[in-house]
Amino acid sequence: MVLADLGSKLSVALRKMANHTVIDQEVLDAMLADICKALLQADVNVAQVKQLRTNVRTAVNFDNLASGINKRKLIESAIMTELCSMLDPGVKPYEPKKKRPNVIMFVGLQGAGKTTTCTKYAHLYKRKGWKVGLVCADTFRAGAFDQLKQNATKAKIPFYGSYTETDPSVIAGDGVAKFKDEGYEIIIVDTSGRHRQEGALFEEMEQIAAATEPDDVVFVMDSSIGQAAHDQARAFKEKVKVGSCIITKLDGHAKGGGALSAVAATQAPIIHIGTGEHIDDFEDFEVKAFVSRLLGKGNIAGLMERMKEADVDLEGAEMMKRLASGQWTLRDMREQFQAVMKMGPLSNIMNSFPGMQGLDFRESSQRIKRWMTIMDSMTDAELDDPKLMSAERVLRIARGSGYYPSEVIELLEQFKMMQSTMQKTMKKNKKLGKQTDMRNMDSHTVAQMMQRMNPQMLQHLGGINGLDAMMREMEKEEKKLKDK
Ligand SMILES: Nc1nc2c(ncn2[C@@H]2O[C@H](COP(=O)(O)OP(=O)(O)OP(=O)(O)O)[C@@H](O)[C@H]2O)c(=O)[nH]1
C-alpha cells in the first residue's frame, strides 16, 4: 500500500520517544522533524506540514504542563489530532436516503479511475441491499460505455447508456429519469474525463449537473499525482459542487500524501479509498480509523462495530452449544465464513488489527471463497455430518465445484483443525468454569489458525504477545459495545 512507508516512518518517529527517559523540547523537536520529513516525502502539502508542526508545538507547551502528565501520550495525541484535522474538512458527507432516488455524479480527470470507482461504489450499495443503477454519460472516450457495461454486467448492476446519442447531458438526464421512474435508490452518473482541467470538460460537467440535479458530486482523484493534486482539486471545486472525494490507487507505489492532503482544497470529505483494480478493493474512509492505522494502531473499535452490523456471532452461543454436543459441522463453518465475508473484503477486516497494515490478504480471501464454493457442492447430509466423507464423495465434490480433490481435502483438514481446536478450548474452559468464545481460546490456538490464513500474520502482530494484546483489546471493545 502506498502509505505503508509513510505509516512506518511515522510510527518509528513516535516510538523513538521511548528511548528517552526525559521528554523535553529537544526530543519533541527531533521527533517533529522526523514526522514532517516523512509527510513531505509522501507529498503532503508543504503549508499543511508547517501548520502541523506549529500546532503540535502549541499543544505541547512544556512551560505550562501540569506535573505528572504523561508527555509521551500528550504528544501522540497532539500528532493524531493534527493528522486527523488535515484529512477532515469538518463537513459531513452526503448520506443517501433509503426509499427515494439519490443521484450521485462522479467527476475527475481521465484515468483517475472514475468508471472503475462507479462500479465499486454501486457494488458496495448493492451488497448492502440498495437498488442501484449506473448511467454512462461519457461520450468523450471511445469505449467508455463498453467498459461501464462490462463492469456493470459482471457485478450484475443495471446500466444505461447510448451508442448513438452524442450529447452526454441528454444521456445523463434520460438515464436518471428512467432509473427514477423504476424506483432506483442509488443512481450513479459516470461522466467523462480529460487529460487536463480544460474548459470543455468543466462546461460538460455543468451541463450534466443541470440535467441530473445530483444529490452529491463525488470527485475521484488518483493518489499518484503528488503535489499537483492540490490545484486539480481546487479547480474542480470551483466549477462543480463537489460534496465528497474518493482517492484511488492507494495500493500502488506512488506516495499518496498529495491526494490525501488535497482534500483541504475541496473542503469535501473523503468517503472511500480505492485499493486495487478489483471490485472489492474499496474501503470506507473514516479519518480517525485511517490515521490510527497509519500510526500502526489498528481500529479494533471499528472492527467490532462492523462485526455487530454483519451479525457475526462472536460469542458463538449457538455454535458453541452445538460444539458442546459434538455437533459442530461443515455447515457451521460455512456460516462462520459467510458472516465474515458479509463484513467486506478480508483485507479491510484484517487491516483493522494493529500491526496488520500492508499485508496482502488476497490469497486468504481467495482460499475462503474457494472453500465456500466447494461446500456449495456438498449435499445437506455431508454438510451436517462430516463423518460421511469418503474418497468417492471427495471426487464428486471436486468435480461438482471445479476444484482439485487435493483442494477439497485441504478444506476438510481445515475443518478438522478448527473443530479440534475449538473442542480443546471448550474442555479447558469447562474445567476453569469459563464460557467459551473466540476470544478466550488460548493465543497459541488462535495463532495456529491465523498462520493457516496467512503465514506472515503472526509475525506482523508482534508474535504471541502482540496477539495476546490484540485479544485483550477486542475484549475491552466488546465490553464497551455491550455497555452502550
Ligand atoms: N491499482 C489500482 N488501479 C485502479 C484503481 N482504480 C482504478 N484503477 C485502474 O485505473 C485505470 C483507469 O481507470 P478508469 O476507471 O478507466 O478511469 P476513468 O477515470 O474512468 O477514465 P476516463 O473514463 O478515461 O475518464 C484502469 O486500469 C483501472 O483498472 C485502484 O484503486 N487501484
Number of helices: 23
Order of strands, main sheet, comes to 3-2-4-1-5-6-7-8
Mean pLDDT: 80
Beta percentage is 5-15%
Task: State the shape.
Answer: flat
Tell me the name of the CATH class of the largest domain: Alpha Beta
**What's the β-strand tally?**
8
Low-confidence stretches: none
Layout: helices, strands, pairs:
Blueprint: H1 4-15, H2 25-41, H3 46-59, H4 71-87, E1 102-107, H5 114-127, E2 132-137, H6 144-154, E3 159-160, H7 168-181, E4 186-191, H8 199-212, E5 216-222, H9 228-239, E6 242-248, H10 257-261, H11 263-266, E7 270-274, E8 282-284, H12 287-294, H13 300-309, H14 317-324, H15 330-342, H16 346-350, H17 362-376, H18 380-384, H19 391-401, H20 405-432, H21 443-453, H22 457-461, H23 463-483
Parallel strand pairs: 1-4, 1-5, 2-3, 2-4, 5-6, 6-7
Antiparallel strand pairs: 7-8
Bound molecules: guanosine-5'-triphosphate.
Guanosine-5'-triphosphate binds next to helix 5.
Domain AAA+ ATPase: 100-274
Main location: cytoplasm
Domain Signal recognition particle SRP54 helical bundle: 2-87
Structural features, described:
There is one protein chain. This protein is an alpha/beta fold and 484 residues long. Helices cover 57% and strands 9% of the residues. It is built from 23 helices and 8 strands. It has an 8-stranded mixed beta sheet, with helices on both faces. Helix 6 links the parallel strand 2 and strand 3. The chain is flat, with a radius of gyration of 25 Å. The structure holds guanosine-5'-triphosphate. Guanosine-5'-triphosphate binds next to helix 5. Guanosine-5'-triphosphate is lined by residues 108, 110-116, 138, 141, 144, 192-193, 248-249, 251-252, 274-277, 281.
